[in-house]
Amino acid sequence: MSTPEPGAAPGEPLDVADRRGPTDFADLAGDPTEPPRRSRGARVARWAAIGTCVAIVALWAFVYVYAARAKPVDRLADRTFARQGQEICAATMARLAELPPASASRTNVDRAAVVDQTDQELARMLDDLDGVAPRTGNDARMVREWLADYRTYLSNRVDYAERLRHDASARFYETEKQPGEQITIPIDTLATANDMNACTAPEDLS
Tell me: the pLDDT tens digits for 52-108? Predict the structure, then answer.
């Protein structure tokens, strides 16, 4: 005699679908291994994020390319002064290289004397640069301001040498072109922008 399956009425066989266990209904809920489909809003947000990233990269690429090609602000239109200035400054730096290093001086008086010699060479260099400086236009304005900054720097050196002569602990101080910017920064900026590397401020006091 057969025993009725659970859930079936006496004498009534259980339906085939009712014989399925819990795992038999996986096909009704879909394959759990398949990734869930993204909604339309999620796809739109994803592509918007990708587009934003591409736009940012393109923007920075343009900035770098433009900056590389852009003319420096302190670049002179006429290259004549730049060529002559480099020659004048190079000759001055060659003479300065023959002087003993100020830092190697035995006493503060000796150090002050070396600074004095350097300052005399720089003063002559500035006079020579002024003699070939442009006289009209924007180039003239830029070079005139640059030479004025250089002479201010030279006056700082002269003041330092005078104090050093009487005080071994004297320190060198630079005038600020503007708050937080030492006067040698605009001096070096114009010099390097115009391929006048020999005309940058000497570093003998650093």
Answer: 766 676 566 544 444 444 446 889 999 999 999 999 999 999 999 999 988 889 999
CA distance 172 to 118: 15
Which residues contact residue 6 at a Cβ distance below 8 angstroms, ignoring those fewer than 6 apart? 14
CA distance 127 to 121: 10
- Residue 182 and residue 101 in one domain: yes
* Angle 181-134-131 from CA coordinates, rounded to 5°: 90
User: Do 186 and 107 lie in a common domain?
Assistant: yes
Query: How many other β-carbons are positioned within 10 Å of the β-carbon of residue 185?
Result: 15
Which run of H or E residues covers position 177? strand 176-178
Backbone angles phi, psi at 32, to 5 degrees: -65, -15
Structural domain containing residue 129 = 80-199
